[in-house]
Amino acid sequence: MLLVCSCYGILRQPRSIRRLLPRTALTNLVSSFIMPKVDYCNVVLAGLPQRELDRVQSVVNAAARLSADARKYGHVTPLLMDLHWLWVPEHVKFKLCVLMHHCLTGAAPRYLTELAVPVASTARRRLRLVSSADLVVPSTQRSTIGDRAFTVAGPRAWNSQPSDIRTSTLSFDTFKKHLKSYLF
Question: Which residues does the chain have with pLDDT short of 50?
Answer without folding.
Answer: 129
